[in-house]
Amino acid sequence: MNVELVRTTAADGVPLVGALRVPAPGAEPWLPVDVMIMHHGVGGNFYNAHFQDRMGEALLERGCAVLRVNNRGHDLAYNSPAGRLGAAFEVVDDCRHDWTAWIDLAAARGYRRIGLWGHSLGAVKTIYFLAAQGDARVARAIASSPPRFSYSAYAARPDRAAFLADYERARQMIDAGAPNDLLAVDIPTSVVLTARTYVDKYGPDERYDILRHLPNVSIPLLVTIGGEEGARPDSADRFPFGGLADQVAALSERLPNLTFAVIPGADHFYAGTTDALWAVVERWLMRESTRQ
């Protein structure tokens, strides 16, 4: 397997690392993208085993290069020249610098039909980037399992007490002048993060609610959600995924550029269902290839 380690730097000085793989000589390119930039979720990174392994191989077989990358939210915490970062310390809005940096690198390598594929928080960031800023060099995008960050939706749930208690703790820490102190939370996911990061993601401003941003994405976009996500009434993911599939499906009926699919039996990481996920993605890419 031929893998090139690549590096870039975001406009605000954050160094980023990724891995580029190119198709074998003679692979016939027929997809509507010639490179797919693949972004991890909260605390992830480009090199851990992931469903993107299987997706990357399938893309390479069809003549599409694969660029798996870190964004500033990789791993839990680390020190960078730009300060302390990682999933515990990031501000989601800053992802725009990371997405642009990797698109710049792909374009500098000669790719002209760039695709984006984000998972989990990486999917939220992809939707947010495309809606808030966008880039004419991006031709297509896929968002797999983007959770909904909505204070109002969480606070309206009958089981909201744990969420509101965590939010109140975060607010008190900020009010006490300790926004960068860490707190451990279980709702809407089990994670350790700063009070500032918690309020940025889950606070009343709802800056990253995908239902707000999907109508502002102009390019063809495929959103997938696992059939098991939010399905258990006692699971933490009932907050970000409960009822979300129906809401995105309704949006897809009125947004001609948005395609939505539920992957039956899939969990958040598509364990054991990568073939089903790829079948949906391939059908969508084949359909999109006829629209170039």
What would you say about this model in short?
With 292 residues, the chain is an alpha/beta fold.
CATH superfamily of the largest domain: Alpha/Beta hydrolase fold, catalytic domain
Distance between the termini: 31 Å
Radius of gyration: 19 Å
Structural class call reads alpha/beta
Mean pLDDT score: 95
The CATH architecture designation of the largest domain is 3-Layer(aba) Sandwich
Query: How do the strands of the widest beta sheet line up side by side?
Result: 1-2-4-3-7-8-11-12
Write the layout of secondary structure elements.
Elements: E1 4-9, E2 15-21, E3 35-39, H1 51-61, E4 65-69, E5 78-80, E6 83-85, H2 95-108, E7 114-119, H3 121-132, E8 138-144, H4 151-155, H5 161-175, E9 182-185, E10 191-194, H6 195-202, H7 210-213, E11 221-226, H8 238-241, H9 244-254, E12 258-263, H10 274-289
Parallel strand pairs: 3-4, 3-7, 7-8, 8-11, 11-12
Antiparallel strand pairs: 1-2, 2-4, 5-6, 9-10
Helix pairs in contact: 5-6
Structural features, described:
The strands form three sheets. An eight-stranded mixed β-sheet has the order 1-2-4-3-7-8-11-12, with helices on both faces. Strands 5-6 form a two-stranded antiparallel ribbon. It has a two-stranded antiparallel ribbon with strand order 9-10. The protein is globular and about 60 Å long. β1 and β2 form a beta hairpin. The protein is built from ten helices and twelve strands. The protein has two domains: 230 residues, 3-Layer(aba) Sandwich (Rossmann fold); 54 residues. The longest helix has 16 residues. The mean pLDDT is 95. By secondary structure, it is α/β, with parallel strands linked by helices.
